[in-house]
Amino acid sequence: MEFVLIVMIVPWITTMSSLKLHDTINEKTSLPMDYPEPQFLNSVTNITVREGSLAILPCTVQHLGTKQVAWRRLDNDHFLTIGTLTWVKDVDIQIEHRRLGDITDWDLLIKHVRPDHDGLYECQITSVEKYVRHVTLHVQATVVKGRKCVQEGQELKIVCNTTGKKKIPDDVTWLKDDQPINSSYFNHVVVTNYRSLGSKTLVSVLSVNTSKMADSGVYICQSSLAEVDSINITILKDISPNVKRGADAIYVPEVSEDYSGNKAESRYSTTCVQLCLIVLCVFLTVT
């Protein structure tokens, strides 16, 4: 009985050894013996993007051979991608792969980037030897919102919502056309800050009660955490001297003489200009 068992086991061991040897030979002969080791090519390792935009984390490899490239966050054990496949249930994460000869790109794309995407990422080559390239992603969460076109005389209000990662920003600095906004030169501008410990947010509101043409310009909001955002404000001049504001407004048309000597109501001369300003305002709002 023992003899029969040994006879049956020996062929099995021989077969398994042959298979392993066959696999080893195939693995070794898939590439030339002198095939160079893979290496990362120089690329940007610090990426800064604004919240909601597309983040592209580059990773370029030469001499990859039969190995794979994988991405992961350094603070997580699981992979985000392996090869061209996404290993997480997130439609906003994918790989952009390109090949040029022996050089391959494995860029990690993160769509609609959020503040929680901020962190350190690792591009690695699956191998016994450890080949890694680290890329840091910074997400700017500062958001400036407001009406880009304001009629002269109306209120101008801009809201700057700064979100700190680990702490609340200590302060917010406002600038207009690169000039700091202070009480000396901008005494008609009021800045009010609202701080929230729970959401780690500092909201700063800049307001002008009655806007003037001189208030047009680029307003910049900068937090103490080096987060910066800006907005371009255009003040539209009121060019309707014959239109009286308020509930008792009365339209007084301009009157001119025609060639026959008869008086005729002229078409309002400023309609075209106003229409152009409205189109400009809509364009600025869309962009």
UniProtKB/TrEMBL annotation:
Domain Ig-like positions: 38-133, 150-234
Leader sequence segment: 1-18
Pfam hit, one: Ig_3
UniProt-listed SMART domains: IG, IGc2
Superkingdom of the organism of origin: Eukaryota
Keyword annotations from UniProtKB, A to Z: Signal
InterPro entries (UniProt xref): Ig-like_dom, Ig-like_dom_sf, Ig-like_fold, Ig_I-set, Ig_sub, Ig_sub2, Zig-8
Biological process according to GO: synapse organization
SUPFAM superfamilies: Immunoglobulin (SSF48726)
GO cellular component: neuron projection membrane
Protein name, UniProt field: Ig-like domain-containing protein
The organism of origin for this protein: Lottia gigantea
